[in-house]
Amino acid sequence: MNTTAPSLTEVTTSRFVRIKEGDLDLQLHYNDAGQGNQVIVMLHGSGPGASGWANFNRNIEPMVAAGYRVILMDCPGWSKSDTLVCSGSRSDLNARALNGLLDGIGIDGRVHIIGNSMGAHSTVAFALAYPQRVGKLVLMGGGTGGPSQFVPMPTEGIKLVQALYRDPSIENLKKMMNVFVFDTSSLTEELFQARLDNMLSRRDHLENFVKSLAANPKQFSDYGPRLGEIKAPSLIIWGRDDRFVPLDIGLKLLWGIPNADLHVFNRCGHWAQWEHVEKFNRLVLDFFRD
Prior knowledge:
Elements: H1 10-13, E1 14-21, E2 24-33, E3 39-43, H2 52-56, H3 60-65, E4 69-73, H4 90-104, E5 111-116, H5 118-129, E6 134-140, H6 156-166, H7 170-180, H8 189-200, H9 203-215, E7 234-239, H10 247-256, E8 260-265, H11 272-275, H12 277-289
Parallel strand pairs: 3-4, 3-5, 5-6, 6-7, 7-8
Antiparallel strand pairs: 1-2, 2-4
Helix pairs in contact: 4-5, 6-7, 7-8
């Protein structure tokens, strides 16, 4: 009998679920890996062509090997999930979607959540709306929509993201990605092409994000005044050289969340889980085990 565990690929872990959560009635795509009793949810950022797998494929296997079940949700309007126009808070919408996903696949207990950029905003929204479902939180490059005190808003990176949504070309993609990370040597032509193909395969997502910005330019809520309500142990991770969401936003989270610690990676942009993958994985696993 062959007892070899199935390989962890996007295809072998790909799943769909229909959710009905408040005003949401849509199909979500997610990846489901591992068999552990404790669950880690990973929430991706908002860039064109983003997905749970694209954002976190370097982090899944170590978490599964450590005994966790790992769920990657593709937020509404991204990847293989249904598209929509969001005229309200995107953070709150994603939080409702995650609640519907957990209900839909029968996860009743608390979950740990790792959120990157938009995913961090959504993590905070989820922790405020559903505190009984939250274990520990990891927030990277986002978490509250308040302005930076030192960098003009919107930042250089956010301007490039919005330009890419409006004109999804390889040139605009490279402009964005070249400020996305600190060390651009890891950005291969294959990576660029794969990201571009993913973007162009769902032009409806691109068009609806632009429509969403027109309906509500402030897609991500400022939760600064409510951060003190979050009781969950929280680990804030930032890149010193983040040109999308400046480091002082991470300090706001540290000041606002009562039970939070901050780790800053040197020589790191907006994608800590990619740029410092081995250190990131050890740091997060140690935090979850404590």
